[in-house]
Amino acid sequence: MKAMSDASRETPAASAVRRLIEEHGGGLYQLASRFCGNMDEAEDLVQEVFLSAYRSWDTFRGDADERTWLYRIAARACQRMHRKRAGEPDQIGSLSDLLPFGTERIAVIAGEQDDALQRQIAAEAKDRLESEITRLPEAFRVPLILKEIAGFSVREVAEILALEEATVRSRVHRARLKLRAAVDRVLPRTAEPAPPPMYPEQTCLDLLNAKQESLDRGVAFDSRVICDRCRSVFASLDLTQQVCQDLSEGQLPPGVRQRLVERLAAPNE
Fold first, then answer.
1. What does 170-224 look like in DSSP terms, one character per residue?
2. Are 223 and 231 in contact (CB under 8 A)?
3. Looking at the structure, do residues 156 and 231 belong to the same domain, yes or no?
4. In the list 101, 117, 165, 175, which could disulfide-bond 144, CB 3.0-4.6 Å?
């Protein structure tokens, strides 16, 4: 009876934010943990997001997308809470440093290996990516997380971060290449040196850009016309995106949910 009485006294804002916690708490916690790299800071960030949502609920327009609105609050909270960590670079590196076409022995295609090796590669790739994501500069880390882990489109990420779509696309592409290089380091190499490229370097760069755009849109890329070297690179990009998508899976820990509900009951304390 008391629980029913308490629920009946709950404000519309509190009721709405409780629902948002159930629907989006897990995803926001995954975003926060990748952004912060520290579970205590991630919990603080999640609490700030939902308390901010509670306090500004009256300003939310019902015709807008709740998830986009909530992640916009999260992105702003990330920027407010960000403290540059020791060793965190200001830049991601030049594009030439991120390009993978000069290696002598290329990586094997993970998806063409036996099941046991695929599982091992996926586990090692996940560990590498989790570490590498936290080392990305903030300007690249946040768009990458929103696009590849939270699953927003380039247009939606641009809306959330108040950036031009071209800027978001460029940052996601470079961050994806940086993560791909980390994944590439855990892949077995071919026994023999790779054959020479089939095309001039600029053609390979154009193909790489086309591959990145296909990943942006979530559409298949025709790999029948590319050489073994590009095929290996593109397969590792696919693996990178798949591991990032897998990182989105997770629940809001019960203890975090309980503390958040308690804070929501007394938001001004």
1. HHHHHHHHHHHHHHHTTSPBPSSPPPPPSS-HHHHHHHHHHHHHHHHHT-----T
2. yes
3. yes
4. 175
How confident is residue 212, by pLDDT bands cut at 50, 70 and 90?
very high
Residue 85 region by backbone torsions, left for phi larger than 0, else alpha for psi between -120 and 50, else beta: beta
Do 109 and 20 have their domain in common?
Answer: no
Alpha-carbon distance of 68 to 65, in angstroms, equals 5
- Measured in degrees and rounded to the nearest 5, phi and psi for residue 252 equal -70, 120
Domain count, the chain: 2
Q: Is 2 within the bounds of a domain? A: no
In-domain check, residue 28: yes
What residues make up the domain containing 48? 10-86+250-265
User: Under 8 Å CB-to-CB from 231, ≥6 apart: which residues?
Assistant: 109, 223
| CATH number reported for the structural domain that contains residue 259 in this entry | 1.10.1740.10
Q: Which pLDDT score is estimated for 5?
A: 40
Residues 143 and 14 in one domain: no
* pTM beyond cutoff 0.90: no
How many of the other CB atoms lie within 10 Å of CB of 9? 8
Express each pLDDT in 155-194 by its tens digit.
Answer: 999 999 999 999 999 999 999 999 998 998 888 888 888 7
User: In terms of domains, do 74 and 114 share one?
Assistant: no
Q: Is residue 3 part of a domain?
A: no
Instruction: Tell me if 160 sits within 8 A of 146, measured CB to CB.
Output: yes
| The residue type at 47 | Q
